[in-house]
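User: I'll paste a sequence; please echo it back and then give the predicted structure.

Assistant: Echoing your sequence first, then the prediction.
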Amino acid sequence: MEQEVKCIKTKLAVGSCATKKIKLYKKHNIVLVYFYVRSYTKYLHNLSDNLFVSMSLQLQLPLRGCVGRRVKPTTCSPRARRVKTLATLSQPQSDGVNWVEATSSFFEQDKRPIMLFDGVCNLCNGGVKFVRDNDRNKTIRYEALQSEAGKMLLRRSGRAPDDISSVVLVENNRSYIKSEAVLKIMEYIDLPFPQLAFLLHFMPLFVRDFVYDNVANNRYTVFGRSESCEI
């Protein structure tokens, strides 16, 4: 009888010891999982910061150090320049020419917008052909950026006459550049492109322009160029 009691006590002691080990093991795993989640969250936070900074430098956006914790507030001005979705019509320049009035004849008889494109870029020429094939109502006119008329319309839009870095859509009272110009062109052509443009407007502007700039900066390398305008 005494041996049975000792055996039972021994089993109970072993059981309680095993229970304590299991509890310690669970606590140890919880601590490991906590530190793993914390380090992974910190990694994702740093990754998002680096991505935002790279996009800001690409698009010349004000860094969020103005409101963030990691960058001193003195690194950017409280009056930091916002991203322009439109190329505003230029005012009279120092040369005494009012380019809005000087190019008003482009819209006196024909109110259709004018698409300015790089005339020697194969990608741009292909894009113009695509737009023309899907514009049954002929709602858009076309002009090369390198032409005299294109340079005048660039000045009208407040851009340098030799700036061929972006497609520009010039309307009678405003102009669009980069991804905004692409979406506006899509709104003019046949279905289903206006609906697709509506959906793409939900994508943030800096993301759309970031993608546009990367394609535009490498368009000659990837798609090549021609000696003269093919349109």
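Residues 2-59 form the longest helix (58 residues). The CA atoms of residues 203 and 209 lie 10 Å apart.
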